[in-house]
Amino acid sequence: MKKRRLVSFVLLILLLFTSCTYGTNQTESTNAESALQTAQFHFIDVGQGDCALIRSGDTNIMIDAGTRESGSIICEYLSNLGIDYLDCFIGTHPHEDHMGGGAAVLLGVDVGNVYLNGETTTSYFFERFVDVLIDKEITPYIPDLGIEYDIGPFKLEFLSPQKDFGNSNDNSLVLTVKYGDVTALYTGDAERSVEAELIKNGENINADILKVSHHGSRYASSVEFLNKVSPSVAVISSGSGNSYGHPHKEALERIEKCGAEILRCDREGTVVLSTDGKEVYNASGEAFEKREESEQRQVYIGNRKSKVFHCETCPNLPGNKNRVIFNKRENAVMAGYSVCGNCNP
Ligand SMILES: [Zn+2]
Ligand SMILES: [Zn+2]
What we know:
By secondary structure, this protein is of the alpha/beta class. It has helices at residues 2-24, 71-80, 96-99, 102-108, 124-135, 192-200, 223-229, 249-257, 265-268, 329-334; strands spanning 39-43, 52-56, 59-63, 85-91, 110-116, 140-141, 148-151, 154-160, 174-179, 182-186, 209-211, 233-236, 261-264, 271-275, 280-281, 300-303, 308-311, 323-326, 338-339.
């Protein structure tokens, strides 16, 4: 039974590779620009997990659906807003803290398109999710990278994974959602190797709103990445007192240093940002400061003795006589230096 379910899922996925161009390339919305009203970016408090809702008018998009326990919380949240239809559900990767509530959401509301990263697992929550997909005759898609998907007034672009990174977190779907001049970047649980890849490939990751990766793990949110994104506001979705210690102090320091305002679901509960397509406002209606991509040149400091290199702000910098300065990260790597586990340069 288990096997059959997986096989049918794999078949579904195969189908999508061939059909997704027809199913998802919607025509250019002609009057979206002129009809631009307001949009909201919700980061629903699901404890230790991710669940984002993006809406404008009757267009609703959900990215991830928290844990199994949070399924009913999400359904209640949608029902309180009078939402009974999601134009699109995106599951960044099949981990229980991102798709645990997926089956409940699919049962609670109707869904247009479902986008997944193509990975499967035999965990109970995911098999339930696939069962509901099959029951409701919904065919999931693996999105194409580098193509703009028009969903109501929103433009979605999937940027990653561009290759198999060898672990589920790094294989998360990473995407930008644009509304007018405002961009939000959703990173799933992707960590530094994905950030480096996006920068290396010259992807446009500049964004006003950043959904901080992996609940604020120290292994994500590198200085280089944050400077490129240059967010006005960074939202961290993690549960208070979680066993991973998320968000980690090092990541918080780097995000703070990059100039973004930090909002945390573990402290404030659900975070709702709104926009008119030009500015981003907090719940009190105050606009966040607009920021340009930081031109700040990054310098890396190596320790001659330990052959480890750090960013300038690391608390573990070597004494002056053991310092080697690298102007580029790759120069440090080429010189045989390894990254500091603390500052994650
Ligand atoms: Zn994960
Ligand atoms: Zn996660």
